[in-house]
Amino acid sequence: MSKKNKFKGTGVAIVTPFTKDGNVDFKGLEKLVNFIIKGGVEYVVVMGTTGESVTLTKEEKQSVVSHVVEAVNKRVPIVLGLGGNNTLELVNSLKKDSFNGIDALLSVSPYYNKPNQRGIYQHYKALSEASPLPIILYNVPGRTSSNMTADTTVKLAEDFKNIIAIKEASGNLEQCMKIIKNKPKDFLVISGDDALTLPMIACGADGVISVVANAFPKDFSEMTRQILAGKVKEAQKLHYKLTDIIEQLFADGNPAGIKAVLEMMKICSSQVRLPLVNVNQATQNALTELVKRYK
Question: Which of 26, 100, 145, 212 is packed most tightly, with the most Cβ within 10 A?
Answer without folding.
Answer: 212
